[in-house]
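subagent[fold] <- orchestrator: predict structure for attached chain, return tokens only, no commentary.
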Amino acid sequence: MRTFEPDLIIFDCDGVLVDSELLSCGALADVLGGAGIDLSLDEALKLFLGRSTKAVLEHYRSLGRELPDSFFADLKQRVRDRFSASLQPIPGIAALLSALTVPCCVASSSDLDRIRFSLQFTGLIGHFGDRLYSAEMVARGKPAPDLFLLAADRMGIPPARTLVVEDSVGGVMAAKAAGMTVWGFAGGSHYHGRDGRGILQAAGAERVFDRMQDFSADF
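subagent[fold] -> orchestrator:
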């Protein structure tokens, strides 16, 4: 059914282009554990899926817990180590990106260095070039709409003509707040054994799918 023909597609990176959410949340739990903060993998996914590292700092600061000065550097290295050992592209994403005729870009809560590393390591960087937008570039990260609005503005496309593909509740909320159409992707390994479809639909996704083969390149 042809319900929406966008002029721009914005892809989240983690959990949509690369299967990284379990790796990054596991790294976060490890680093916080080293700082004396007990955080399970399930709790990390619930609290911080799709959120920036700045949001982690703000969360614990609101609880009266200051993270060590080395937190960001330690987390970056732990994530890099895990990605270098195990990071994979989402199955079918390379074929989908190759088939698209609509302009696309990336808007992610990760920093630019991590986005570039993830896409280069998995062979996807050529589909995006320098069309990479990070929460570092805006005052408020997801679930605020700022990052998606920045990406659409830089790409020269109105929000109403933009489709966002997201895997997190915060990302879906951000896209909705930006006035964009949003589809939820529930095919990442972090949704195995969890009701990803229900979670993303409840957040407001107009459509949820769990295989890139089910994304229609022709709409």
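orchestrator: received. Logging for downstream: The first helix runs from residue 21 to 34. The longest strand covers residues 104-108.
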